[in-house]
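Good day; I would like, with your permission, to put a structural problem before you. A protein sequence and the structure tokens that stand for its backbone fold form the material at issue. The record follows directly beneath this note:
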Amino acid sequence: MLSGYQLPVRAEFGGCRYDLNADFRDVLEIMQYLQDPALPEFIRWQVALHLFYGESLPDAYFQEGADFFARFVSCGQEDTANGPKLLDWEKDAQLIIADVNKVAGREIRELPEVHWWTFLSWFHGIGEGQLSTVIGIREKLRQGKALESWEKDYYRKNKSRIDLPKTFSTEELAEKNRLNKMLGN
């Protein structure tokens, strides 16, 4: 069971213990693999779980291991993320790190290890700043709400920072490639 008052560093499946790669950098890398549309979903999960547990899980514990990872990423809470993505861990990395550094009171990338849950605690402590401005504008644009004049100006000056890249599923990429071949591209 995952408790918010303890940092999980191990998991057990079928009597075998697995040390978790729980550093925030490891978890962010794993999440990148899970979002890679160029790989089939099953392969993405195999790579992700191998990186997280440090070895391949037996097939009998694959789903349990995937469920544990999902709970781990959400700090033991039910994942309630619905709707369009407003944050991109990779694209927003500099904004995230700058604001997390403020909350942590130090440069966290210099630390040899920062548990994912500690990182998320700092992340959730972020108040007003550039990241909240960017996310606020993204949310207004997503909802079709009018931007205030200062937000319009900020958006015009930082459009590439605010607009998230379009991601495609494996099927969409295959169709795009098929159409490009037909067009001679």
Notes: The first strand starts at residue 10 and ends at 13. The CA atoms of residues 98 and 107 lie 8 Å apart.
